[in-house]
Structure formats: structure tokens, C-alpha cells
């Protein structure tokens, strides 16, 4: 079982290399390899989600000296989410022919999956930086896929913003290394409570720098400026895949906030929570007003995605097991809902008939958090976990209303005031799959939340995670 | 020695941030490069300054920590690659749009050829 842990990283890397070396010219072969690879990743993720918490020691180096890959409930969940989303989006890409509009789409796509899987699996802070760069450099390529002036110019902004984030990440890592002498996350969790009091200011600086980096990824206000332009100008399927990119930031915040800088750490205590909380409230507001004010659909969806990140991080900032569990449920939901909306907006560019309109309505109901879909369940869980916080309640409920109004206006403009268009060969299969996944998430809310409760408990009490690193030697 | 390196890192970072805030892509790229030089130095000295010490543990002798040297190599390679990507993309942006301003005006950046943009944007 332990050897399986490396496959979600190695498999896409090898397949991407194979595509570039041997199938650079034939699109059909590229598509075949890409689909088979994504299916294999999905099968792997389903296998791994049933596995217990475990470590994979790269090169068999013992833990604080070598790099470890760690599998726990949260990583397995993110792997499964990424693989399912990747398959859905790949189907859409192939059926709509987006991959034929530029070169190397499938290779970049697989490298992107490699980076995402690696970021979710790694147990080493510096290795997390490396996988961030892998997924970013692939995303730069995907973002400008198909070319065009607006896309490239927005792409430059996106790259510059993320390069600045990478620099901050390195400053934070070097500060942590110089105070603790380790970058293994489990080792940090053991060593940080014991640092001398005169070093605790440095740790606070490093913690806030790290939080800034993850906030850039998660598009937390005031670091969200890169997102609307990037998502609105990226090719439709790529924007849908980027729905999971913001979740990398949320994942890293949850991981570091529970494992490395928990609220009972003397050096930081509730520093991170106190910073994330107001930023998340502002993010919800910006997302809601942006959704109301945007004048085209992809941009509107981008703002709705920002709003959903705000809701998610508001729950994360509580740093309690029930709130984390609710945040994880909402994370799955918002990834699928955002992706579905981007795929529908991609379809609606050419085809606006009754079925597309109906799909749009279902996706909007999910995104805004109206009953009966999983957005409602997710927001309900979050509100329940933040029961003592009237401000959070007001923000989430008002934002849902504004999002609904914004999308209702966009939907009526798009589908009622414009003539029906019947473009041939546009397939709704991927959107249907995405919405089916949302409905399944709603119907299976009971078992899913039970599993997520366990995951959240394990996150807030990471003894199994630390023990799996075998820091005392094997 | 510590003071000298601290001043060097501080100056590089300040210049980098100043250039990052310019409105053209070329100064922004230069600023990012300066920032990456600053952070490389910063990583390099994160194991404290040791003069004339090999990265080997010997009997009673001084040694320098090899890990930051490995980290800084990784960081150099990555920032080099990323800067190359950024230069190519900035060049592409310059060649397709005829100028290298980094800001994008929202109305014009939103795919004006896009039917959805037209559909929703032009409604009264």
C-alpha cells in the first residue's frame, strides 16, 4: 500500500513526458493518454481514501532529513476531488475541442494535476513550495492556451502576482528554518512549542508571511485582484480547473493552521484566526457585490468563486473541529459548483437553448446556497458551526441573496433576452456529470459529513499524522 | 558581516518592491528578479554565517549547514525558470497589444469579441 502513495505524483509526470516526446503531433493519442491517466488517478484516489494515515519516505530517508509524502483524510479527500474534477473537465475539453486550439494542452494538464496532487500529499514545507511552483508553471501555460491579446496580458499579471507570492513563501520558509532547523511539517509541530521566547516574534512573522502566500492562492481580500481577470479570460475548461487551484490555498491554510500553528501554540495563539476572520468577511462582501456588478458571465462566476472562498475561510478561521468539518463539505461543494458554472458559461458562448438555461439555473441554485442542493447543506453546516457569531450569519445570508440576484439578472439577460442559438456538437455531458456529482453530494450529505467529522477531528488532534512520520527513528 | 548582508538583502528587497510597483512589465520583471536575489541571499544565511567551514560534520570542527545551500539551489532554478516564462509572456503581450503597460482596463480586457460580454454588457 505504501508504494501507491507516490503514484499520484509520478504517474501524471511520466504520462505528460510521454505525450511531449512521443505524441506531440497526434491529438487522438494525446487525448487517449490523458483520459487513461486521469481515470487511473481517480482509481488511485478511491483506493487511497480508504487507506489509513501513512507516510511515504522518498529514497527511504528517515523523516526530518528526507522528504515525506503524507496521506491522511484531508489529503485523500483533496486527491479524490481533484481527480474527479479533472476527469469531468477533460471530457468537456475533448467534446468541445478546446484542446485543439493550441499545442500541448494535455501535457500541461497532466503537469498541473501532478503539481496539485503533490501539494496535497507532501509533508514537507519546502516541498510544498516546489509543488506550488509546478502547479503554477503548468497553470501559466493553460491560462494562455489558445492565445489572444487580452488573455496574454492578464496572464502576465497572474504570473507576476504569483511570483511575488513565491518570493514571500521563500522568505517565510527561510525564517522558519533559521529558528527551528527543520522544514518537515510534523517535526515543526513538535519543535515550535519548544522554541525560546525570544524567537517567538520571528515565528509570528513567518506565520503571517505564510498566511499571506496562502491567502494569495485562496484569493482572500485584499489579495484577490489577480482572480477575476484570470478566471474571466482563461479558456472555459481551464477556468473550471482553476476552481480547485484556490482550494490549494484553503488546504494549505487548514493544514498549517491545524498542524504547524494550532491555536494553542504559545508563539502564535489565535494570530492567524484573527487575521483570516475579518479578511474572510471582506471576501464574502467583495464576492457578493462583484457578482451583482459584473457585466459578463465569466467575470461574474469569478466573483462568485471569490465569495465562496470567503464563506469557506470564514469557517476555517474558527479552527474548531465542527467548523473545519463544515468547511471541508463546503470546499467539495464550491469546487464542483464553480467548475459547473464555468463549463456552462463556456457552452453558453455558442449554445443558448432551454437545456443550457435549465443547467445554468441548477448550478446557480447550488452556487448561491439555495435549497435543495449541496450549497444549502454546506452553508447550513457552516452557520451551525458558527452559531455564536451574528456577523458571520449576516454576511453569509446577505451574500447568498446578492449572489442569487446577480445570477438571476445574468440568466434572464442571457437566456431570455437573446435569441436561442443551436450550435451543433456542443456536448453537455460534462456539465451533467458535474451537476450529478453535486446532487450525489447532497443526497449523501449524512455519510459524507460523518466521514468529514472524523477527518476534522484528526486534523485538530494530529497525533496519528505526527506518529506516521516516525521522527524518533525507525 | 551580518550588518553587511542585512543591508544587502534590505536594499535588494526595497529596490525590488519599488520596481514591482511600476506600471510597465519590464521594470516589474527586473523588480521580481531583484526580489528573488534578495530571497536567495536570505535563504543562504538562514543557517547563520560560518566562514571557512565545509558542509561536513568533523570531530570538534566547525561545519556549515548544507541544507540551505540545497534549498537556495532549488530556489534559484525555480526563480530562473519562472522569470523566463514571465519574460516570454510579457514579450507576447507586448507584441500582440503594441504596448507593455501592466494594467488591464476591465472593459477592454473582458473578451469584447465574446458574445456573453456583448450580451450582458450591452443591455440597458
TrEMBL record, chain A:
Subcellular location: Cell membrane; Membrane
Main location: membrane
Stretches that traverse the bilayer: 6-23, 35-53, 65-92, 104-122, 128-146, 158-181, 201-227, 239-263, 275-294, 301-320, 326-345, 357-378, 390-408, 429-452
Signal sequence coordinates: none
Coiled-coil boundaries: none
Gene Ontology terms for molecular function: NADH dehydrogenase (ubiquinone) activity
GO cellular component assignments: plasma membrane
GO annotation, biological process: ATP synthesis coupled electron transport
Protein family membership: Belongs to the CPA3 antiporters (TC 2.A.63) subunit D family.
Name recorded for this polypeptide: Monovalent cation/H+ antiporter subunit D
Organism: Cypionkella aquatica
High-level lineage: Bacteria, Pseudomonadati, Pseudomonadota, Alphaproteobacteria, Rhodobacterales
TrEMBL record, chain B:
Chief place where the protein resides: membrane
Protein name per Swiss-Prot or TrEMBL: Na+/H+ antiporter subunit C
Family (UniProt): Belongs to the CPA3 antiporters (TC 2.A.63) subunit C family.
Nucleotide-binding found in the keyword field: no
Keyword Membrane tagged: yes
Any one cellular-component term (Gene Ontology): plasma membrane
Region (Disordered), start-end ranges: 102-124
Pfam families, per database record: Oxidored_q2
Keywords carried by this UniProt record: Cell membrane, Membrane, Transmembrane, Transmembrane helix
Location of this chain's protein in the cell: Cell membrane
InterPro entries: CPA3_antiporter_subunitC, NUOK/Mnh_C1-like
Topology term for the membrane: Multi-pass membrane protein
Record organism: Cypionkella aquatica
Record's compositionally biased regions (Basic and acidic residues): 102-116
Ranges that cross the membrane: 6-21, 28-49, 69-91
Amino acid at each position: 500500500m505504501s508504494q501507491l502513495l507516490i503514484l499520484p505524483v509520478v504517474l501524471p509526470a511520466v504520462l505528460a513526458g510521454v505525450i511531449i516526446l512521443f505524441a506531440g503531433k497526434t491529438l487522438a493519442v494525446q487525448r487517449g493518454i490523458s483520459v487513461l491517466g486521469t481515470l487511473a488517478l481517480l482509481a488511485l484516489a478511491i483506493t487511497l481514501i480508504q487507506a489509513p494515515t501513512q507516510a511515504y519516505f522518498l529514497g527511504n530517508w528517515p523523516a526530518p532529513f528526507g522528504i515525506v509524502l503524507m496521506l491522511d483524510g484531508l489529503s485523500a479527500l483533496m486527491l479524490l476531488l481533484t481527480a474527479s474534477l479533472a476527469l469531468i473537465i477533460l471530457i468537456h475539453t475533448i467534446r468541445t475541442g478546446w484542446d485543439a486550439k493550441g499545442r500541448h494542452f494535455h501535457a500541461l494538464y497532466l503537469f498541473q494535476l501532478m503539481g496539485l496532487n503533490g501539494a496535497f500529499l507532501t509533508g514537507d514545507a519546502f516541498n510544498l513550495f516546489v509543488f506550488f511552483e509546478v502547479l503554477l508553471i503548468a497553470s501559466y501555460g493553460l491560462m494562455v492556451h489558445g492565445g489572444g491579446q487580452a488573455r496574454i496580458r492578464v496572464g502576465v499579471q497572474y504570473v507576476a502576482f504569483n511570483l511575488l507570492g513565491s518570493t514571500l513563501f521563500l522568505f517565510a520558509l527561510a525564517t522558519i528554518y533559521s529558528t527551528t532547523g527543520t522544514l518537515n511539517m510534523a517535526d515543526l509541530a513538535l519543535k515550535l512549542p519548544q522554541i525560546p521566547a525570544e524567537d517567538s516574534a520571528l515565528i509570528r512573522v513567518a506565520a503571517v508571511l505564510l498566511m499571506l502566500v496562502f491567502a494569495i492562492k485562496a484569493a482572500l481580500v485584499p489579495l484577490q485582484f489577480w482572480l477575476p481577470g484570470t478566471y474571466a479570460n482563461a479558456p472555459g475548461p481551464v477556468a473550471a480547473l482553476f476552481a480547485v487551484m484556490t482550494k490549494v490555498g484553503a488546504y494549505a491554510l487548514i493544514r498549517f493552521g491545524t498542524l504547524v500553528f494550532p491555536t494553542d501554540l504559545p508563539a502564535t495563539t489565535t494570530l492567524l484566526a484573527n487575521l483570516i476572520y475579518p479578511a474572510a468577511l471582506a471576501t464574502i462582501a467583495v464576492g457578493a457585490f462583484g457578482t451583482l456588478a459584473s457585466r459578463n458571465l465569466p467575470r461574474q462566476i469569478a466573483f462568485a468563486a471569490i465569495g465562496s472562498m470567503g464563506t469557506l475561510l470564514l469557517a476555517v478561521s474558527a479552527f474548531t473541529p465542527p467548523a473545519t468539518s463544515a468547511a471541508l463539505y463546503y470546499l467539495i461543494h464550491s469546487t464542483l459548483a464553480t467548475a459547473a458554472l464555468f463549463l456552462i458559461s463556456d457552452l453558453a458562448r455558442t449554445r443558448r437553448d432551454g437545456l443550457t438555461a435549465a443547467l445554468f439555473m441548477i448550478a446557480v441554485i447550488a452556487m448561491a446556497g439555495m435549497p435543495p442542493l449541496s450549497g444549502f447543506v454546506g452553508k447550513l453546516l457552516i452557520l451551525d458551526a458558527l452559531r455564536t457569531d451574528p456577523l458571520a450569519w449576516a454576511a453569509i445570508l446577505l451574500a447568498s441573496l446578492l449572489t442569487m440576484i446577480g445570477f438571476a439578472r445574468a440568466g434572464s439577460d442571457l437566456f431570455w433576452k437573446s435569441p436561442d442559438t443551436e450550435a451543433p456538437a456542443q456536448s453537455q455531458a460534462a456539465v451533467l456529470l458535474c451537476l450529478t456529482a453535486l446532487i450525489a453530494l447532497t443526497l449523501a450529505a449524512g455519510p459524507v459529513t460523518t466521514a468529514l467529522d472524523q477527518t476534522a477531528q484528526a486534523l485538530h488532534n494530529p497525533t496519528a499524522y505526527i506518529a506516521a512520520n516516525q521522527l524518533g527513528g525507525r | 558581516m551580518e550588518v553587511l548582508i542585512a543591508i544587502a538583502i534590505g536594499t535588494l528587497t526595497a529596490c525590488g518592491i519599488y520596481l514591482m510597483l511600476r506600471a510597465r512589465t519590464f521594470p516589474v520583471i527586473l523588480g521580481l528578479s531583484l526580489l528573488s536575489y534578495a530571497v536567495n541571499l536570505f535563504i543562504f544565511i538562514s543557517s547563520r554565517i560560518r566562514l571557512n567551514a565545509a558542509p561536513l560534520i568533523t570531530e570538534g570542527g566547525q561545519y556549515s549547514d548544507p541544507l540551505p545551500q540545497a534549498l537556495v539551489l532549488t530556489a534559484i532554478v525555480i526563480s530562473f525558470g519562472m522569470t523566463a516564462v514571465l519574460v516570454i509572456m510579457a514579450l507576447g503581450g507586448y507584441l500582440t497589444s503594441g504596448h507593455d503597460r501592466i494594467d488591464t482596463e476591465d472593459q477592454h480586457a473582458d473578451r469584447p469579441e465574446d458574445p456573453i460580454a456583448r450580451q450582458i454588457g450591452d443591455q440597458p
